[in-house]
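Let's do one together. I've listed all components of the complex below, 690 residues spread over two lines.
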Amino acid sequence: MASRYLLHSSTFRLALIYMALFGASVLLLLGFIYWSTAAYLTQQTDQTIEAEIADLAERYRMTGLAGLTTLISERLSRKPAGSAIYLLVNKSLDPLLGNLNRWPRGAQVQDGWVDFQLEGPGADNADTHPARARVFRIKGGYLLLVGSDIHDLEHTKQRIIITLAWGLAITFVLGGLGGAMMSRTTVRRIESINQASREIISGDLTRRIPTRNTGDDFDVLADNLNAMLDRIGLLMEDVRRVSDNIAHDLRTPLARLRNRLEELHLQTSGTGANSEGIEQAVSEADRLLNTFNALLRIARIEAQHGGESFTAVAMDDLVRDVAELYEPLMEEKRQALAMQLHRNVHVSGDRDLLFQAIANLLDNATKYTPAGGNIQIDLARENGKGRLAIADSGPGIPEAAHEKVFQRFFRLEQSRTTPGNGLGMSLVAAVVTLHRMSIRLEDNRPGLRVVIEFPVCESAAAPLR
Amino acid sequence: MNILVIEDDSDTANYLIKGLRESGHAVDHAADGKEGLYLAMEEHHEVMVIDRMLPGIDGLSIIRTLRASGNRTPVLILSALGEVDDRVHGLRAGGDDYLVKPFAYSELLARLEALLRRGTAASAETVLRVADLEMDLLSRTVRRAGQALDLQPREFRLLEYLMRHAGQVVTRTMLLESVWDYHFDPQTNVIDVHISRLRSKIDKGFEPSLLRTVRGAGYSLGTRG
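Okay, and this is what the predicted structure of the assembly comes out as:
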């Protein structure tokens, strides 16, 4: 399966959209987790600081500044490597006691929470730690700062962010892979339906869409399509039966009528006036029968889908045979025939039907080309395709009617007077479709050019009849 | 001539029998496959007309059975089907000619006579003669009253077919099938033009005219009429 197809599949697009939505929700969820964790950690630090402050305040209330300084000294000596920060300064911010050697830069000189950068012992700016503290004003102009080094906290927060980011990335990767796998399965099943449809369109009406017998929605779809095809097949069978009935019910009495007339003609032969009238009636009946036969023949060809009667047909020989058949007719009308036939162009097909189709085209060409005109037949081979072009110097066909000429009984206004039943081109179209060829009309300036393109059959050695 | 007709449709059968008897042939008739096969095996006929669709045993099985038992009587298959595949099947089963219903009686008669002639004509002939028209199949030359005629290959084959069936009516479809070897319906009467061309070569300046058109049926080569 082409990956291009996978990318274009609606399932894959759906998977992408779903992945984006899912990713956004995961992002939101992780964001919330981070936010609440960070808030909790910060709150923990603040609570520790507040508890410390409560302790110090208690001591200060009971024993005054002296007691406070004793306690701070005690705390400082008890855990020198701890994360707690104490600093007592006087009015002019000179440090009196504590583990900071000066009032931190940027910290406000009033009651409240402050965040600042703690400078390490090595005065190196790179070695700063974030810190959080609370400032108190004490009687006598003293300021007390109690806080904590929150480097570890920040570090933890960062770790959480990284972990969550990885989680998000993994979610996306897994989601993408899952989506691709899911759409691949779907695409494969849709493709199998498409494949079957294409074969059915090209004429194999007995083909059915495969099911997996799992009863899933694809099976239900396939079952429904198959039921539809069965129904269509039944209807087509009906149509065929009806046309066969027409053949039997109308052609047979018509043929009988024709034969009675012929009998009558034989009995009255030589008795003058009547004889000629009967003869005309016979040829009238013949024309009617021919129209009927042509109509039924088209229906039969349309209902076929290639097969048994197909052999490797040498198109150049076939075209030459048709041309040879029509050559005296063209000579009679003084039409010049020019042929350029590429040799060894073979096609898999029904020899008689192809002959019929090309004969119909050449028949039209001689019929509509005025005396002294030109007819050109080209058979070429390009890029593995064969191309047959039959061009004439007649009046041509207006472009608006190019498609209509293939309809049954369609005749151009100006050709109503020429003999014909309006079925010749329909038959050509039926034969062309049966052989999976394409046909188009072009302006030959002046005249008409009919171009038939067809797949070339390579095996020239295929059995010939 | 002794002809066996195996046909279940009574209209077609009666009409066929009446026509054939009027044309001076003796006709046996069977209305189903079993009886038909019995008559075909027991009695001698010069040609048989067998419908494809028959109650009992179908037409193609009758032909296969006959051929398997060594019976070589020429058979004309009648069929309501009319596609190339069917024709191929019919001829493969051992039929000698194939005609699609409904048919013109003249077409059937012309084909039956062609089949009868095929049974009797010696195929080893090297020179064909009709009146003062002479065709040498080995040197591929044609003379009329001793005078050489210049024919193109297709005209030669056309004339050969007509000479092999001299005195019989030959229809346009028979010519298309035998001389051109294609089964198809020409829209215009292209065959007429080929015939008139041939006529101008073999009849122009000679008496009597040999190639004549039989109205509503086809052509005939010969002196009578």
